[in-house]
């Protein structure tokens, strides 16, 4: 058996075993690519009319209003959007799972909407994309290693596609779909040609997706991009719960420090600690709609002393090293948001092609299988005198 035949067998069986998983992950990825844009249309309560020189309410006021809308559950913080956006206050927890967001007018405190995110369509799609709607500890491993199999399929597919030489005939076969051919040939071309054009983007989507769920790959890439550093486990710095509180309203004090100085095009999140040991998190996102260009600060809730953390999700973005910046970018690269709308269109098209590959591949395999199992025609004996 030649090397190419061995690669073909490997490609076939990897594809048959992972086809359904790849289809689900890819098609849900298509839907999630434009989640932000779709929500900006179907959720008008995300926007308010800006008030010139208007006074924005501090976190303590907005938190108190929001907690009346979700009785018995503590708010996790207050998220101030860029100019012209409403404020949202998140509530979430596990066992039982819940996730609410209360949208408020930042100037008046008027409740604009209470959204149960657990019942949201995109939350359902996201759960399928990450976990295949399985329990999270099982689903994440299945999707992550299924994506690893898909990456191997991309590599073996490239080997099978690669033409022996690039004369005109092979170029037409390899780079163009022969639309006027029989449907089986068109299906064959639809498996090979779009798959080639989407290969590089598909590999990027696969690798950035695996970083979320495969620790050894995540650690290896971080090690390689930071010059040999070990990726530390995320640990939020703790407040000194034995210290004497120096401020009655520490969250508001931090907000007054950061909110007036932030750019109007940036969003600001400030957490509201529940536990005595929690620190206060302040994050300023300089490019709302993405997540990577965010500055993270942690403060002791009793003394307001700034606390330092270790890892990519601490400190000012511009002062981070290359590897830490790349890790912050991982999600935005994965969904294409790093390149704004053109990037999302590329991610959408690549995901759609990835979703089509298991379908066209199965049709190719099924057609060849039927051809192999077709009964040969019975030969009829012809009398000697007729043959003469």
Automatic annotation (TrEMBL):
Annotated signal sequence range: none
A Pfam family matched in the record: PepSY
Domain PepSY: 57-114
Taxonomic path: Bacteria, Pseudomonadati, Bacteroidota, Cytophagia, Cytophagales
Record keywords, A-Z: Membrane, Transmembrane, Transmembrane helix
PANTHER family the UniProt entry points to: BLL7967 PROTEIN, IRON-REGULATED INNER MEMBRANE PROTEIN-RELATED
Listed name of the protein: Putative iron-regulated membrane protein
Record organism: Larkinella arboricola
PROSITE patterns referenced in this protein's UniProt entry, alphabetically: PROKAR_LIPOPROTEIN (PS51257)
Record-annotated membrane-spanning stretches: 12-34, 142-163, 194-214, 345-366
Keyword Transmembrane among UniProt keywords: yes
């Amino acid at each position: 058996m030649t090397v190419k035949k061995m690669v073909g067998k490997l490609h076939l069986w990897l594809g048959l075993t992972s086809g359904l998983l790849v289809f689900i992950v890819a098609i849900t990825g298509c839907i999630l690519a434009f989640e932000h844009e779709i929500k900006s249309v179907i959720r008008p309560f995300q926007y308010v009319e800006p008030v010139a020189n208007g006074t924005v309410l501090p976190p303590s006021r907005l938190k108190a209003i929001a907690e009346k809308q979700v009785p018995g559950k503590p708010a996790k913080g207050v998220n101030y959007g860029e100019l012209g956006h409403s404020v949202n206050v998140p509530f979430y927890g596990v066992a039982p799972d819940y996730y609410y967001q209360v949208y408020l007018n930042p100037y008046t405190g008027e409740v604009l909407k209470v959204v149960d995110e657990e019942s949201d369509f995109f939350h359902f799609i996201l759960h399928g994309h990450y976990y295949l709607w399985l329990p999270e500890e099982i689903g994440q491993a299945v999707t992550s290693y299924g994506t690893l199999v898909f990456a191997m399929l991309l590599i073996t597919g490239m080997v099978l596609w690669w033409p022996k030489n690039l004369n005109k005939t092979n170029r037409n076969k390899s780079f163009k779909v022969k639309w006027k051919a029989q449907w089986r040939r068109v299906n064959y071309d639809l498996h090979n040609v779009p798959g080639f054009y989407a290969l590089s983007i598909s590999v990027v989507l696969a690798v950035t997706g695996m970083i979320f769920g495969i620790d050894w790959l995540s650690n290896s890439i971080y090690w390689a991009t930071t010059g040999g550093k070990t990726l530390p486990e995320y640990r939020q710095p703790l407040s000194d719960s034995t210290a004497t509180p120096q401020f009655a309203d520490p969250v508001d004090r931090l907000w007054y420090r950061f909110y007036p100085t932030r750019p109007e095009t940036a969003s600001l999140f400030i957490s509201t600690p529940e536990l005595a040991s929690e620190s206060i998190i302040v994050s300023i996102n300089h490019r709302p709609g993405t997540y990577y260009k965010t500055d993270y600060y942690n403060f002791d809730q009793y003394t307001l002393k700034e606390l330092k953390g270790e890892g990519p999700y601490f400190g000012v973005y511009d002062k981070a090293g290359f590897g830490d910046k790349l890790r912050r970018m991982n999600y935005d690269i994965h969904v294409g948001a790093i390149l704004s709308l053109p990037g999302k269109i590329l991610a959408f098209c690549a995901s759609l092609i990835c979703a089509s590959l298991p379908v066209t591949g199965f049709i190719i395999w099924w057609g060849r299988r039927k051809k192999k199992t077709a009964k040969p025609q019975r030969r009829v004996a012809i009398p000697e005198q007729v043959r003469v």
